[in-house]
Amino acid sequence: MKLKTFNIGGIHPPEHKLSASAAIQDAPLPKVAVVPLSQHLGAPAKVKVKRGEMVKVGTLLAKGEAFISANIHSPVSGKVAKIEPRVDSSGFRRESVVIEVQGDEWNEDIDTSNDIIKDIKLEKKDILQRIHDCGIVGLGGATFPSHVKYMIPEGRSVEFLIINGVECEPYITSDDQLMLEKGEEMMVGIRVMMKAAGVEKAIIGVENNKPKAIEHLRKIADQYQGISVEPLKVQYPQGGEKQLIDALIKRQIPAGKLPSDVGCVVNNVGTAFAIYEAVQKNKPLVERIVTVTGKTVKKPSNFKVRLGTPISDLLPLAECDMENTGKVINGGPMMGKALVALNAAVTKGTSAVLLIKKEESKRVTVQNCIRCGKCMSVCPMGLEPYLLSVIARQGENERCETERIMDCIECGSCVYTCPSGRPLLDNIRLGKANTGFMIRTRGRK
Amino acid sequence: MGLLTVSGSPHIHGGLSVKKLMWGVVIAMVPAMLASFYYFGLGAIKVTLVAVLSSVIFEYVITKFIMKEKPNLMDGSAVITGILLAFNVPSNLPIWIIIIGSLVAIGVAKMSFGGLGKNPFNPALVGRVFLLISFPVQMTSWPVVDKIFPMGLDAVTGPTPLAVVKEGIGNGEKMTDIMNQIPDYTQLFLGQSGGSLGEVSALLLLLGGIYMLYRKIITWHIPLSFLAAVVIFSGIFWLYDPNTYVDPIFHLVTGGMMLGVFFMATDMVTSPMTPKGQLVFGAGVGILTIIIRVWGAYPEGVSFAILLMNAVVPHLNNIFKPERFGEEVSHG
């Protein structure tokens, strides 16, 4: 059988899933947890605790009051030591709550048992409220607040819930391992999400390089009505929302539109598990699975980590050889961000910590564009990166807009492929920022 | 531990480089080059060496002393230009003319536009056409192929099959009589006809082309539409009047056709970026080639056709955009 995949562009970098089938281990609690108030897409949350206050695991630290924002809960128990800006994983100083950890005391209304609760008691409205209250965001990397996705506009109906188990980034295995170990909970989570979105059908898309996860999910999916598992041909960036919808149901979201415009809601498998815990166990998002991997890592591992744990705490656990490491990345090699400070905290979006060997940490030498067109042929959005790069550099924002620079999903396939090693995406990001500003301020004069 | 690198994503590279692409093209040209040595002997070796060396030296000197940049000779692009220029001239061409050809190709057609990747026209073809116009006698005195390693310098000269046909038709001779004066198609295809170094063996050029397709250095779009346009366009005339117009197969196996199809028209710098643009480009080259061969003053039209279409490339890039994601929404 021919496996499904998306239809435009794409690349296949070496997979390097070094930590595949490494069982999830609990990372120890940090001594001090640093919890940034902006761990999601949208406005930072408003802090609700004071210095010196005692908090438990699950205490609300900050409230997401804006339309696109998310609540943030304490991932540890202890005393709020400081509220001050700290360098986070994006390299910027951001307001953070610093908590001195004491013991591990959880809020009483959180069900911390291991029992799987399959019976979904909450109604649609309450499910949405619970997802909102528990601060659930997309755990695939984009960290979009989940409750917003389920606010489907009046008069529009959604047909499919699409669950993203693609994990197309090389090296990362956190979703793979979660599917293997928490498949049952995930299925309940998916049923909860189906209820929230009002859909009858859910499709879990998993790339074919995770045969164990596919087999496991297929085995248990039979017991859950309306959920199917679809193996996909391995191709990057299939985990992109637009590419995944195209791969699974052959619908392409038009520029500037949302998945709901083609009848879909998309969430990651990690999010499905988080939603299960929030709705069925009343547990806010205080921990996540983080893969620690790379060629200079002796024991590539998958850890369950409390948010706020400094990334530097995780490195010795996986026996990282820092002597030969030239770069540390928060996320995968294609879209992850290079860390500026190793003590930056694990946040809701940290799917992996990737160590790059010294020899591979520098970019290749830049040469003239030889107009080979490879960037264009791999672009999953059907754009012309070589052209966008040039006009972005020249500040031709109007033309950038008509050449659809805002469609760029920053997957990096163009740079990966470019034989001249050109910094296409750097220029395109600049162009996106300038063009986006131009579009937003248009007509304000 | 030392300092860590911080840079924007992506953090890995596929490993493809200009160098790999260019040397891939060189490898693809080796069989045809060896064939030219075999058929034209020392003359071919001399022409190739001079063309390659002078191209590389001109690129180095111009980059270093005029553009004041760091020369990057190992990328192989000057070597390709040199070999292609050699492929486009007869084996008995005087050394000084070859050097002028290299200077025009590298100095004028490539470096004056800013070097690698910035030239609108194929450098080797500009060099060849310049020589053809400036030194028509030397450029069209083709040594006759003698496959037992002749000393190329003293080789007997004779016209190419294309010239024979052109002159024959011009004189009003019958097509069957004309065809008797040239080697049969199998011989032409395998490589036994007078002409430039790179015109001798259609087969080996085809092999090189297939190698480049396999290595994904080129795509099938330009070669296919080029060949299809040649066959269809010349086929129409041939079917209309087989006595005045030569058949499509002849067009395919003679002259610089295979060289043009696989090595000149597909030059990534001077051809369109999108598959659709490439199809139109290839078809344009094919049709222009036949127009020039049939009605033009020159017996061979591939170089002119490619250069003319090179000029249109920016427009083709503007007209034929890639298929954008979400352009058409299909339901179900």
Concise summary:
Chain A has 13 helices and 17 strands. Chain A has 445 residues and is an alpha/beta fold.
Any overview of this molecule?
The complex is a heterodimer of chains A (445) and B (332). Chain A contains 13 helices and 17 strands. Chain A is α/β, with parallel strands linked by helices. Chain A folds into 4 domains: 27-101, OB fold (Dihydrolipoamide Acetyltransferase, E2P) (Beta Barrel), CATH 2.40.50; 124-281, Rossmann fold (3-Layer(aba) Sandwich), CATH 3.40.50; 287-360, Roll (Ubiquitin-like (UB roll)), CATH 3.10.20; 374-441, no CATH class. In chain A, the strands form 4 sheets. A 6-stranded mixed sheet of chain A has the order 1-14-13-17-15-16. In chain A, strand 15 and strand 16 (337-338) form a beta hairpin. The relative contact order of chain A is 0.16. Chain B has 332 residues and is an all-alpha fold. In chain B, 60% of the residues lie in helices and 1% in strands. Chain B has helices spanning 18-40, 42-66, 77-87, 95-110, 123-134, 136-139, 161-170, 175-180, 185-190, 202-214, 221-240, 248-253, 257-264, 275-295, 302-319, and strands at residues 142-143, 157-158. In chain B, strands 1-2 form a two-stranded antiparallel ribbon. Mean pLDDT of chain B is 87; it is low at 147-155. At the A-B interface, strand 15, strand 16, helix 9, helix 12 and helix 13 of A face helix 1 of B.
